[in-house]
Amino acid sequence: MPLLSVEDLHAGYAVGGQMLRAVDGVSFTVNTGETVGLVGESGCGKSSLAKVLMRLVAPSAGRVLFDGTDVAPLKGGPLKSYRRQAQMVFQDPFASLNPRHTVAEILKGPLEVHGLGSRAERAQAAGAALERVGLPRAALSRYPHEFSGGQRQRLGIARALILSPRLVICDEPVSALDLSIQAQILNLLSKMKAELGLSYLFISHDLSVVRYFADRVLVMYLGRIVETGSWQEIFSRPLHPYTRALMEAVPTPGRRRHAAPLSGDLPSARNVPAGCRFHPRCPLATPLCTEADPVLRPAGDGQQVACHHAPTGAPH
Amino acid sequence: MSALLDVRGLSIAFPKATPVRDVSLTVEAGETVALVGESGSGKSLTALALLRLLPERARIASGEVLFGGRDLARLGDRELRDVRGRDIAMVFQEPMTALNPVLSVGDQIAEVVRLHQGLSRGAARARAVELLDLVRIPEPQRRVAEYPHELSGGMRQRVMIAIAVACSPRLLIADEPTTALDVTIQAQVLDLLDALRRDLSMGLLLITHDLGVVAEWADRVAVMYAGRKVEEAPFEVLFATPLHPYTRGLLAASPRLEAGQHCSVGPLNEIRGSIASAAGEKGCAFAPRCPLARAACRIAVPDLVSIAPGRLSACPVTTAAPVSEACHAAPVG
């Protein structure tokens, strides 16, 4: 049984009397010990999806099963227990740490909320959590502003891990960091996963990072998953024209000044195109694409693609 | 023949710090030069200093900014105002904060051409429509009357570029022009900047932290670390045989789309510590993070040494050793 199972999930916001369908029929699973990468551009719904999974936003339809249990009706103790097991690491380590709290208070906070351990045990756990992410115990009495961006992200990771969660949702965890620090944080996340047997939902707009870090990849466009597969499949044989365009758009050493691969802007989720939602920007679009909304269909081992024109035969 | 822009020994000082030291840089007409570095490297301050747009407390402590035979660092305010926007234009990272929210985009473009070219109101409006078309904004007739909040991030950056190229500048300085944009939009904007560079024979100084952008779009690259230029090379040389341990570390630490690396196989090469480790360092600012640092590196700042034409590096350790040996010593991905 997968650790997390998302079934036909919908979520949206009412904006100016209109419904903005941020998450529009998304299904996927995260298995124990697996890193699932979620790729997409701004407005594709990836952060809304994270909020629904954390029960910060209520879904309008569909189910989120954690360890086989639907999380939507959870209240009180069971809800707390779910939140303890599913934690989050945020993009901006400057905004996600309370500037008035010491590191010790930041790290002990989750333990206090969940009523775990004695005072002495909590202090001990906070010190251990710091050391685990590569910061000295002496940092416990300091404030977030005394740390660099990379160190703050280490604090954010320590805070997420202090409750011994099973699933960690990482929402753009390295996007705000300098390149020389990104590798440190990715290596730390990788080490934590191995040591603690974590599962990650790893949300990122950066394909190079997802290619390195994810076991399985979901590509999201305007509230839908348009392609999914193992990292090897997605990066060696991208089938959806959007996935291909994303990859071609990544500047790559050794390829000089190609023509811009995709024209047009991202449409708004307030005004989703009819038929295939990618058709206004798609180089392969035909009249069929303006009418029929393609569903995910199998294309090879575990790969699935939602495109009328993508080849779905077995790879040769 | 002298370069279009010739920066010599530029240092920028705040009352209690000197975040940019002794930076020299040239840009030729029609050339794209990338100035690369992470936060705290001084790359953006360097860019701002070229047009004397530094924050209030900062000043150019020494050095020259030679452009068209004049030193912009010492030019009078009036003359400098003529240069800004006409001969040298600038595009910033965040178009939403750089554009005026209460003026239509047409008015903002028209302002530049009325000021520098003395066009009438009507002619300036027509020119604004032409410029929107030039930066590939669809329906320019309609868009010209819109306000920044009505446009997407990519469109706003195109408007910024339209304003920048309105007077056909000879040099365009673009400070992280695509950092705030999505990857497919980033490709469109870089493609546009490159086409304009070609069509208008502009020099383009691209300030970026993104090595991928550098590799794909720059002719020459200068790498900055903690306020100094530590390496310079033509782009293909830099990526094939990086010399400075910082450059090598950056290249090795980057996950690549085309490389075979995956976390299940092994960790990424890290650069230990952070740029803050340079604080209080007497010698090479990179020494506290450098796998090759020797005692001498901590005593004096190494000179930027010319190794071949257009090829500079400020690391005596890797410059002295044969390249192959040095490459074995440093982890190169």
Can you tell me about this structure?
The complex is a heterodimer of chains A (316) and B (333). In chain A, 32% of the residues lie in helices and 22% in strands. Chain A is of the alpha/beta class. Chain A is globular. Chain A starts with a strand and ends in an 11-residue tail after the last strand. Chain B has 333 residues and is α/β, with parallel strands linked by helices. Chain B folds into three domains: 1-87 and 170-240, 3-Layer(aba) Sandwich (Rossmann fold), CATH 3.40.50; 95-166; 242-256 and 269-329, no CATH class. Chain B has 13 helices and twelve strands. The two termini of chain B are 39 Å apart. Mean pLDDT of chain B is 90; it is low at 322-333. The interface between A and B is large, with 50 and 49 residues.
Instruction: Give the integer mean of the pLDDT values of chain A.
Output: 91
Overall number of strands of chain A: 12
Query: Count of helical segments of chain B?
Result: 13
According to CATH, the fold-level topology of the largest domain in chain B is Rossmann fold
Gap between N and C termini of chain A: 31 Å
Shape of chain B: globular
Oligomer: heterodimer
Fraction in beta strands of chain A: 15-25%
